[in-house]
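Internal ticket #5521
Category: modeling
Description: The requester needs a full-assembly model to guide mutagenesis choices. All entity lines are attached below as received. Residue total reported by intake: 426.
Assigned to: D.W.
Attached entities:
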Amino acid sequence: MPKKEGGSGRLAASARRAQLVDVGRSVFAERGYEATSVEEIAERAGISKPIVYEHFGGKEGLYAVIVDREVEHIVGRIVEAISSGSPRERLEGAALAFLTYVKERPGGFAVLLRDAPASKRSGEMPALMYDLADRVGAIFTEQFRKAGYDAKAAPIYAHALVGMVAFVGQWWTESRKAPPVESVASHIAALAWMGLRHLPRRPALLVTEGRRT
Amino acid sequence: MPKKEGGSGRLAASARRAQLVDVGRSVFAERGYEATSVEEIAERAGISKPIVYEHFGGKEGLYAVIVDREVEHIVGRIVEAISSGSPRERLEGAALAFLTYVKERPGGFAVLLRDAPASKRSGEMPALMYDLADRVGAIFTEQFRKAGYDAKAAPIYAHALVGMVAFVGQWWTESRKAPPVESVASHIAALAWMGLRHLPRRPALLVTEGRRT
DNA sequence: GTAGTAACCTACTGTTGCGTAACTTACGAC
DNA sequence: GTCGTAAGTTACGCAACAGTAGGTTACTAC
């Protein structure tokens, strides 16, 4: 009598945990939190539902573990990338690190961008990107003050940059004609760098609502 | 005997439809598509469930109407904003139009950024932002070619700009200390404009993975 | 007043999906 | 071999929710 699943029979607890994290990540990535059922995860892993509960306590537990690991991954990479070098090198390093993460773990990235369970949502923005932007904002605030720019505007730029990279990253993973990481990173970094470098001290609109100057 | 609801008793069909679109938008905005129940919408509107089915045929029907109206709103505003003026004026106009929309209809914006029902999802990116970026990409491709830049990179910049504005918009609606629209728009437009204006013809990274030059 | 109709309701069906209780199977130690 | 334990199963309780059938209320026209 043949085995029911493709190769993995009975697994040790740690191996099963690892497998469930992998499977869970991809299911959450493609369905979103709410639309994911524990049964589907169990089925794709070739086991039955209670095993998931045994290892992670439930849907939220598994989700929390998955998110936590992804955050570790991406934050680690970025922190390392910005740990040394000139400002421009750090900017490029961060962009490259981010996009490399996106490339290597598209599922994880998708989970981070998607909806969190209703119980953990603060506003609507996925917490990670928000935190990331806040950190960048802190760095910017300091630099802006030093350079004589309006420090209150720093968060705007921080969120703009994070949004830029995140959005491009998402488009890039879904795009068929995908240019190499270095290329994408260099374009983004150039845009951001030049933008910041040539920023006027006190930006103002040329046009005002309705009439032009 | 007091009326059960705060003021709206029996409504004409068209008024009820309008009310349900409003209520539905805010519920979808705060819960997301999957986590929203038709019952909650009905309850908040002060009516019972079958009325919703009578007017919109179901959850997806109502959702579709809401999304369609929001798309009309935002696209209309942006198209108008970029219809005339110098390139820089158009850029600023687009940023201002986008942010004004976000300010005036935060719920609608939230719906556009959130998950669509599983039945209509292509990839993972909400369709509107994707389309918007594609349109910007078309404009950029042409301009890049004229100016002697790498036209293949145009979509990267298009997505970067859209992501920038969308992300800042989201942060802005949730942020307590909210600067005025014009201020935010001017900062974003300045960043984007200066970035594009001073872009090298052939951007390259200073750093390469692991070693520095 | 009473007839007609548009707006609305109560009460149900069927399904899905989380989480759990209680039982079974493989496998190594001795 | 038989005993203990880790790994896994089937079968269920229970709640939420999409969608529907059929009845009820209030308003308008005359």
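Resolution: model delivered.
Comment from assignee: Residues 1-6 of chain A have pLDDT under 50 and may be disordered.
Ticket closed.
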